[in-house]
Amino acid sequence: METTRNVAEPKNSLREALRQKDGMATMSSQAMQALYELREERLLCDAVIKLDDGQIFYVHRAIISACSSFFRTLFTTTLNGSDKTNIDLPGVSSQTMNLILEYVYLRRLTITNENVSTLLVTADFLGFLGVIHLCCQFLKKHMNPRNCIGIYKFALYEATDMNIYRSALSACVIMGLPNISDYIHKHRELLMEEKRQKLLSLENNNNQENLNNMAVAVAAIENAVFNGQIEDILEENDMDGTEN
């Protein structure tokens, strides 16, 4: 009898733990939904974000600071003080701000091919790491031979996630070669100069980790593309663009 009871108890405990976990998740979701509705109704808000297009967003400082290093620093440092309640954000559109706030309160983010670059740049500027991660995941998922060069160039200058840069390079070298080999050869000097400038910028910022990552990425594409290995890669991956 004791053996049976000892076996059943963990199952019941696990079932109860899962039930409690689901209940807590539901309560958390309901709480954030309520806070989101309060924000929309401008209730209990303690800060105002003003954009160039005239749009005004009422927010709760504690909520937005939990997701953004920019706002956390803005609202908590002694330089600004607790009286900092009006924030001007130049260069941010109301559509982008709406999407970010929806993520902050509801953990829901609508990412499309049209808005991903703007979202990523804005999230990087404001320190919304969760939004940055989701945008990078979107870019990785939707990378293809037609857009890998564009993503590569975007990641080179804009993206802070070095994995995006390396993924774009990999796509250029492997997945995209049938469509972009001519482009790469034609613009070799331009691409090399872009990478050189990026390396110099990272070096000046003393960011050794990013510098090392970039050096590895640069070496990969130089070895595979600029040193005459395009044909070998195409043959290895059976991506010469011909039909059987």
Automatic annotation (TrEMBL):
<dbReference type="Pfam" id="PF00651">
    <property type="entry name" value="BTB"/>
</dbReference>
<keyword id="KW-0009">Actin-binding</keyword>
<dbReference type="InterPro" id="IPR011333">
    <property type="entry name" value="SKP1/BTB/POZ_sf"/>
</dbReference>
<protein>
    <recommendedName>
        <fullName>BTB domain-containing protein</fullName>
    </recommendedName>
</protein>
<keyword id="KW-0880">Kelch repeat</keyword>
<keyword id="KW-0677">Repeat</keyword>
<dbReference type="InterPro" id="IPR000210">
    <property type="entry name" value="BTB/POZ_dom"/>
</dbReference>
<feature type="domain" description="BTB">
    <location>
        <begin position="45"/>
        <end position="113"/>
    </location>
</feature>
